[in-house]
Specification:
Layout: H1 13-21, H2 53-71, E1 81-85, H3 90-99, E2 106-110, H4 112-121
Parallel strand pairs: 1-2
């Protein structure tokens, strides 16, 4: 379910769109001598300049970080793992793993001193 958040990546186009829409409009000031010239409709030329590229980059990176945080990349194909300390009774380990629904899970045997460190490192 969480992996569907990666489909929100097109949201990164919003800051670019906001920067594109924001234009500085120049107001035409009437001149006294302009009354002798023929009247024409003003033409607006669109020149798109990258204003505040650092701000645009920060906005895009914040959105990307938010999407990555919501997606919480978990790899479901990795499977479950049962950490077993050395010297544990194999029959007891199998019985407990079966009760927990982890009968087909991979078994990793570690010394007791390293087991908690391994679990902390691989908790996802």
């Amino acid at each position: 379910m969480n992996a569907f958040w990666w489909l929100a990546l097109p949201v990164l186009l919003l800051p670019v769109w906001w920067h594109r829409k924001k234009r500085v409009q120049n107001q035409a000031a009437p001149m006294a001598t302009a009354r002798f010239l023929p009247r024409t409709e003003p033409r607006q030329t669109r020149v798109w300049r990258w204003s505040n590229p650092l701000l645009l980059l920060v906005r895009c990176l914040l959105l990307l970080a938010l999407i990555a945080w919501l997606a919480d990349p978990v790899y479901p194909w990795r499977g479950d793992t049962v950490v077993v300390t050395q010297g544990a009774d194999p029959a007891w380990v199998e019985r407990e793993a079966t009760q927990a629904g982890l009968a087909d899970a991979e078994r990793v045997t570690l010394p007791a001193a390293q087991a908690l460190g391994w679990v902390h490192t691989h908790e996802r």
